[in-house]
Amino acid sequence: xxxxxxxxxxxxxxxxxxxxxxxxxxxxxxxxxxxxxxxxxxxxxxxxxxxxxxxxxxxxxxxxxxxxxxxxxxxxxxxxxxxxxxxxxxxxxxxxxxxxxxxxxxxxxxxxxxxxxxxxxxxxxxxxxxxxxxxxxxxxxxxxxxxxxxxxxxxxxxxxxxxxxxxxxxxxxxxxxxxxxxxxxxxxxxxxxxxxxxxxxxxxxxxxxxxxxxxxxxxxxxxxxxxxxxxxxxxxxxxxxxxxxxxxxxxxxxxxxxxxxxxxxxxxxxxxxxxxxxxxxxxxxxxxxxxxxxxxxxxxxxxxxxxxxxxxxxxxxxxxxxxxxxxxxxxxxxxxxxxxxxxxxxxxxxxxxxxxxxxxxxxxxxxxxxxxxxxxxx
Length: 378
Ligand SMILES: NC(=O)c1ccc[n+]([C@@H]2O[C@H](COP(=O)([O-])OP(=O)(O)OC[C@H]3O[C@@H](n4cnc5c(N)ncnc54)[C@H](O)[C@@H]3O)[C@@H](O)[C@H]2O)c1
Ligand SMILES: [Fe+2]
Prior knowledge:
Blueprint: E1 10-13, H1 21-27, E2 32-37, H2 46-56, E3 60-64, H3 73-86, E4 90-95, H4 97-110, E5 132-136, E6 148-153, E7 158-163, E8 171-174, H5 184-203, H6 209-231, H7 236-256, H8 260-272, H9 276-291, H10 296-305, H11 314-328, H12 345-354, H13 367-376
Parallel strand pairs: 1-8, 2-3, 2-4, 4-5, 5-8
Antiparallel strand pairs: 6-7
Helix pairs in contact: 3-4, 5-6, 5-7, 5-9, 5-10, 6-7, 6-10, 8-9, 8-12, 9-11, 10-11, 12-13
Bound molecules: nicotinamide-adenine-dinucleotide and fe (ii) ion.
């Protein structure tokens, strides 16, 4: 095996670490900050907390809040225009995966004055974006570990990947205190996303001993602490372990790629607006059962990490363990309840198979197989 791996970037982790932001900005040789966050976050008090930290250190800053869930290409273009107006700065990506992904696109577009988000596919070889610091406020996507974002081309109803090595966050600042107020419903959806990152990374065609090391640890942490954080959002230990698990899962997926759960999840979200983690939960167990013939070793690692078995059929044990976690956080719903129309299923199946994320699935499905799987959870 020939491997070339750059496993990690810089991570600063611990309750209260967000107070050190001015030092991190300074360390990057900058004194101005452009904060990118989503519209919902101000109500939590987090944006104000960060503004006060920056202001107290005399750091000139602007806050761009015009980002919604599953950010669109239009939102990226508006953000880039605002950043070009503000000028040279560190981009502080503050929020869940939506804000983090949007910040990467905005930073990259600002470094490429003539470009718009519609050029996403060509920007992979473009000029550098502005340097980023990522401060996740959900324990889920692991988007702070990589330089790509998922954005939505609303007119084409499809996900577009925008990214560049220069917009991989220079520093991931993981402060579990920021997730203490996350509502149970969002804790469930974002935490389930992290669990899927670990499981799909283990089973991915791109899995290596490096990604598997991150992924197994991530599955263990998320599997154990997600139900606890869901039941008691104020449990700082659960929040801390979950945040670390989600971050490690991010490193895993960045190294290995994912698979069919994400292919279907992206298509479901594009068709219905369903939150990412809820869309994944709708099909996770069924995709695992479908993939089992090609993922026996990965599902054994999954089952062991979730402390189930030993069992003659490790895949069954892994699916059952996932079923229990999913049940404990009340997240799995039939597609009908997510707003899917029966006649949309062929189009959703086609989009799932066409999504590049599906290429790493251990068992590659046909459109007909995905459609059948979707009907089974309708
Ligand atoms: N780049 C990657 O590696 C990667 C991986 C997986 C998913 N994603 C993308 O990430 C996005 C989903 O991100 P997400 O699951 O983190 O959700 P999100 O960013 O859309 O946030 C969900 C909701 O939670 C709110 N919120 C965030 N932090 C909060 C807090 N601390 N307290 C209270 N409310 C809070 C937000 O305002 C929002 O309304 C999708 O667009 C998905 O495609 C990216
Ligand atoms: Fe995800």
